[in-house]
Design a protein that fits this description.
Blueprint lengths: L1 E6 L7 H10 L9 E2 L3 E6 L2 H11 L4 E2 L2 E2 L1 E4 L9 E7 L5 H9 L4 E6 L7 E7 L2 H11 L3 E2 L2 E2 L1 E4 L3 H11 L29 E6 L3 H5 L4 H10 L2 E4 L9 E7 L2 H21 L8 E6 H8 L4 H10 L2 E4 L11 E7 L2 H28 L9 H4 L58 E8 L3 H5 L4 H10 L2 E4 L9 E8 L1 H17 L11 E8 L3 H5 L4 H10 L2 E3 L11 E8 L1 H22 L16
Antiparallel strand pairs: 1-3, 1-6, 2-3, 4-5, 7-9, 7-12, 8-9, 10-11, 13-15, 13-16, 14-15, 16-18, 17-18, 19-21, 19-22, 20-21, 22-24, 23-24
Helix pairs in contact: 7-8, 8-11, 9-11, 10-11, 14-15, 17-18
Amino acid sequence: MNKLYIGNVSAEASEEDLETIFERLKIPHSGPFLVKTGYAFVDCPDEKAANLAIERISGNEELFGKVLEVAISVPKSQRSCKMQIRNIPPHMQWEVLDGMLAQYGTVESCEQVNTDTETAVVNVRYAAKDQARLAMEKLNGSMMENFALKVSYIPDETAAAEGASGRGRRGFNARGTPRSGSPGQGARPKMQSDIPLRMLVPTQFVGAIIGKEGATIRNITKQTRSKIDIHRKENAGAAEKPITIHSTPEGCLNACMTIMEIMQKEAVDTKFTEAIPLKILAHNNFVGRLIGKEGRNLKKIEQDTGTKITISALLDLTVYNLERTITINGTLKESNKALEELMTKIMESYESDMAAMNLQSNLIPGLNLNALGLFPSGAPGMGPSMSGMPPHGAHGGSAYGCSPYGGEGTFWAPLLSASSQPFSQGQPESETVHLFIPALAVGAIIGKQGQHIKQLSHFAGASIKIAPAEEKDSIQRVVIIIGTPEAQFKAQCRIFGKLKEENFFGPKEEVKLEAHIKVPSFAAGRVIGKGGKTVNELQNLTCAEVVVPRDQTPDENDQVIVKIIGHFFACQLAQRKIQEILAQVRRQQQPKPTSGGQPPQPRRK
């Protein structure tokens, strides 16, 4: 059985009133309605009927002046880290949803659920129950593109079984085995746990791929059990548009080949004579391993599949776009085989990088990897996934490729792997960092009519402002960045990268900047340590220069400045370590509860 909870029920409502609604909407139920004060319960024969009731009744049906709310009934003992989110806008990009979910904690999985409804449904698992509870409170009923989200717990059957065996009275057994076909337990197409495939298509074929009123793309989605995002609004006027396919490897291949077939048919119908090669996008960090030493890997794929494969030049990369275009020339069958081999190589590279990250899971404390969008739990391999959308760049950019320098290799492994643990319990605290940049670079950071700094602020989820020059001939200017640890990481990463990209530093010169953070004056000694021990250890660990100027006068908030000078990763690591020290100081200052109401006894000297 699938038990439903019906909320916001009027005191005047009866069992017959509720039964009338179910019969009118042709929703089957397998038992009587149990009506309580303000709410009711009813059993449905299967998951499909329960989902139908939620879709048709919740927020849509009114009874005695009250709008009914319907959700899966989940006892408190079974409320876990898992939840289902319904009524998601059908054309919403998954990157936006991912970024929204990451605000409330670490998302371990996010799976698409196939339904007959126009709107999308996903099952989400958080790393902790309190994170799931917070997401439930914030998201249920919230509006997204004129759609009210509907969130409900997915029962934790394991917890129920354990609870029954551990606490059950004699003669009573657990409620049985987990329901077959309950959300998230079937073989569903995973949206996050498999690498999404990114492909480029000529702009003139986008209409044919979408079809009349979206019919064609819906059919592809249904047949291949995938989620497909067509980024039509990116790069206005561009000759090609990116498409992101979220599914299993098989689903990605099938969807890609179906799209290729549609384009070839449209080319015949429109008398388009040029060849239409298969083009996919892959992150630059995987490309070196795709090519192999002296090009051996790529040559072998070409020989095995009878295709000709070319990869776009490194010069095409920017700090906002770290994807390379891989062009496969051959028949559909040959291209399909080549694509399958390329995806296998990329998956191997991704898994290797993830293994490297897991080995170094505690280097930067306090960074929520999911919120960063650099390497979400759902494998971003071929394209952006998770967190905020990047500013408009070629092919839409890559949200997680946040290297300020680019280049091959796993640049994130030593540092970004760091921690997927939230900075603190609940929401991460906002931090303020003053970053000093060359005065001549201010125009590059702001951009034409302020567009660059606006895009940067939107991408990072931070407030970014350029402070006025203190003197007319100042050689440095201050960028004031306010945001969470993850927002600070993104914003500072982009600024370091922009300075390198715009040649404010030489080709072989490392970008080193000075950052200032403020700490409570009473905590400055803890940062320095006895005889300078702590600050020396900080410098040795982070490779950054850390200075707490002596004889500072605390400001109006009783805070003093700590200076950090170094390259990007050194600065980040130093900032995180200092924030960790401050967090320890704050915890130690919290009053400890005393037993029996007795005041704490003073320590003996």
